[in-house]
Specification:
Blueprint lengths: L10 H14 L3 H15 L3 H14 L7 H9 L2
Helix pairs in contact: 1-2
Length: about 80
């Protein structure tokens, strides 16, 4: 287990962490650990995310509509 002994936060950030700790019934240290763990869980692997988007795009049918026609139709309404 690693230990981070000194982290310097500006006053507004520290107040926000203290408020979240009070709201959740945790100590400031527990809240910081929770925030760091949550941030690491949420961050998806960029390459995997790009590949997922690429696969989705390839699953769509090819675009056959001329965008210029759509613009003209919209303008003429």
């Amino acid at each position: 287990m690693g230990v981070i002994e000194k982290i310097v936060l500006d006053d507004s950030t520290m107040q926000a962490v203290e408020a979240r700790a009070r709201e959740s019934g945790r100590t400031v240290d527990e809240e910081v650990v929770n925030l760091v763990q949550a941030a690491l869980r949420v961050s998806p692997d960029r390459a995997a995310l790009i590949e997922k988007f690429r696969a989705f795009r390839e699953s769509l049918p090819p675009q056959t509509t001329d965008s210029l026609e759509l613009l003209r139709e919209d303008r003429n309404r």
